[in-house]
Specification:
This protein is an alpha/beta fold. Helix content is 40%, strand content 11%. Helix 3 crosses helix 6. The longest helix is centred in the last third of the chain and has 19 residues.
Length: 203
C-alpha cells in the first residue's frame, strides 16, 4: 500500500497500520516529492497540484483527428470497411463533403482551432473524380496551403492527404491507422492556443 499523503487520509492510514501494510510516504514535510520518483523528485505537490494528473493524461493521450472525406469515394470506402467488419482506430471524426475540391482552407484552420490534433483529407483518385477535376483542384490547393500553415506557425505535418476509392475499404483502414499513429507520436496540438494568446487584446 503506497500512501502519497498520509496526513490527508487518516482512515487509510489507520487501516494500513491495522493490517500491517507498509507505509511509503512519497513527499516530505514541505510537500516536495522525495528522490526516486522520476520526474516528480524534488517537485512541490502544493505548488504543482496537477503534476500527477497531467502526467496520467499525457500517458493516456488519444489524438483527435478531423477527417474531411469525399462523399463518392472515401466515405463509401469507409462504409465498406464497416460492412466488412474491418477494425480501425475510433479517433477520427468524419465530415462528409461533396468533393475534396469543395473544402475551404478555413475548414482546416477551424478544425485545429476547435481542438483537432491532426486533419485528414481524403478523396477520389486522380482521373476518377465524380466532378471530373475536383480532386486536382484540391491537390493544387493543399500544396500551397501547407506553406500557409507553416507561415501561421502550425506544423504542416499534422495535415494528411490521401486517395481512397469506394472499393478500398482496407486501404481506408490502413490510412486511418497510419495517420492516428503519426499524430499520436507528435502529441497534443497546443500551438493554436498559444498563437491565440499572442493576439489577446488587453483592455
Amino acid at each position: 500500500m503506497v500512501h502519497t499523503a498520509v496526513s490527508a487520509g487518516t482512515e487509510d492510514f489507520k487501516l494500513g497500520k491495522e493490517l500491517g501494510l507498509p507505509m511509503i510516504p512519497v513527499i516530505n514535510d514541505d510537500a516536495s516529492y522525495i528522490q526516486g520518483f522520476d520526474f516528480l523528485s524534488g517537485q512541490n505537490a502544493k505548488k504543482n497540484p496537477r503534476l500527477i494528473l497531467d502526467y496520467m493524461e499525457e500517458k493516456k493521450f488519444e489524438p483527435k483527428i478531423a477527417a474531411f472525406v469525399c462523399n463518392w469515394c472515401t466515405y463509401t470506402g469507409a462504409d465498406l470497411a464497416g460492412t466488412s467488419r474491418l477494425k480501425y482506430a475510433p479517433n477520427i471524426k468524419m465530415i462528409r463533403v461533396p468533393c475534396t475540391g469543395r473544402i475551404d482552407p478555413v475548414f482546416i484552420i477551424k478544425a485545429f482551432e476547435k481542438g483537432a490534433d491532426g486533419v485528414l483529407i481524403s478523396g477520389c483518385h486522380p482521373n476518377d473524380c465524380h466532378y471530373n477535376t475536383g480532386n486536382f483542384h484540391a491537390r493544387r490547393r493543399w500544396i500551397l496551403f501547407k506553406e500557409l500553415l507553416s507561415f501561421m506557425g502550425i506544423d504542416s505535418t499534422r495535415l494528411h492527404f490521401s486517395w481512397v476509392s469506394a472499393s478500398e475499404g482496407k486501404k481506408f483502414v490502413d490510412v486511418v491507422t497510419e495517420v492516428v499513429e503519426k499524430v499520436r507520436e507528435q502529441g497534443r496540438f497546443e500551438k493554436y492556443a498559444k498563437i491565440n494568446e499572442e493576439f489577446v487584446i488587453h483592455e
